[in-house]
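Lecture notes, continued. The same structure-token format from the folding unit now serves as the input rather than the output. Read the line below as a description of shape only.
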């Protein structure tokens, strides 16, 4: 297996801190205590995700946060301040929701696997961020909610990501009551993958990421794209699409190398082709 170069790069400033080590790009929301998704924070996160699209040094992405709140959702103070605009804030509200929707979709459509490392409260658009990631590992101190209904603002955009992770009844339970659920319930609902003790969270996420970056980057990209594409199709369409993807994947150099390595009982050397 080709060795993953241990490139270390760090930008400890701004609302999102980025570091790259051993193929893993770590993005840390760094505007505590709320780590809210302000326009600036979303722009910084989007820029990092966009930059990683074609960066061969990046094989997986982790989104984490500083402090006791993973992400409290939209910056309500920023939104409220624009009510004094001539249009009562409509243009700014539209911009915020558009930017957030684009950000969440870019995570789903990203060619690299994206993992949420959650330690603390994930609420509203913060829960939407967790639900949009491919995997989510949470500490046993984490909690989750869609509390918009409590303040007269239904969590309609978080609902999109939430309802694609959990059952309808469970999604509506969270959306209609606004109540907070613990990490174990979130796992049982299907919102997150695993619950681990806080002191082991980073270690467990590291095990997941290293397992992922050891795989063919082309195969990961192919599989992630196919997974989300077929999920929107009928059963017959999904099988037709998946069969075409499988054939194209079979013809890729990495599949030829991987199968050959398996038969010959040796480690594969990935080229990403």
């Amino acid at each position: 297996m080709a060795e993953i170069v241990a490139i270390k790069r760090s930008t400890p400033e701004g609302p999102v801190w980025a570091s790259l080590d051993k193929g893993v790009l770590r993005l840390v929301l760094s505007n505590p205590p709320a780590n809210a998704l302000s326009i600036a924070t979303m722009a910084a996160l989007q820029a990092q995700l966009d930059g990683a699209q074609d960066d061969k040094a990046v094989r997986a992405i982790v989104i984490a946060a500083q402090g006791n709140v993973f992400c409290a959702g939209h910056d309500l103070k920023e939104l409220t301040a624009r009510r004094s605009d001539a249009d009562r804030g409509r243009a700014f509200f539209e911009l915020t929701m558009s930017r957030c929707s684009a950000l969440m979709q870019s995570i789903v459509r990203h060619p690299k696997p994206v993992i949420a490392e959650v330690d603390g409260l994930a609420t509203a658009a913060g829960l939407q961020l967790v639900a949009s990631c491919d995997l989510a590992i949470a500490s046993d101190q984490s909690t989750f909610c869609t509390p918009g209904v409590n303040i007269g603002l239904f969590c309609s955009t978080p609902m999109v990501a939430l309802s694609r992770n959990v059952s309808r009844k469970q999604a509506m339970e969270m959306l209609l009551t606004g109540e907070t659920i613990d990490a174990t319930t979130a796992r049982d609902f299907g919102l997150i993958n695993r619950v681990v003790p806080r002191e082991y969270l980073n270690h467990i996420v590291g095990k997941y990421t290293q397992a992922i970056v050891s795989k063919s980057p082309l195969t990961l990209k192919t599989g992630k794209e196919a997974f989300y594409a077929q999920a929107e199709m009928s059963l017959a369409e999904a099988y037709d699409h998946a069969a075409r993807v499988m054939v194209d994947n079979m013809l890729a150099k990495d599949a030829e190398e991987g199968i050959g390595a398996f038969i010959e009982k040796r480690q594969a050397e990935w080229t990403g082709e």
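Point for the exam: The first helix runs from residue 39 to 52.
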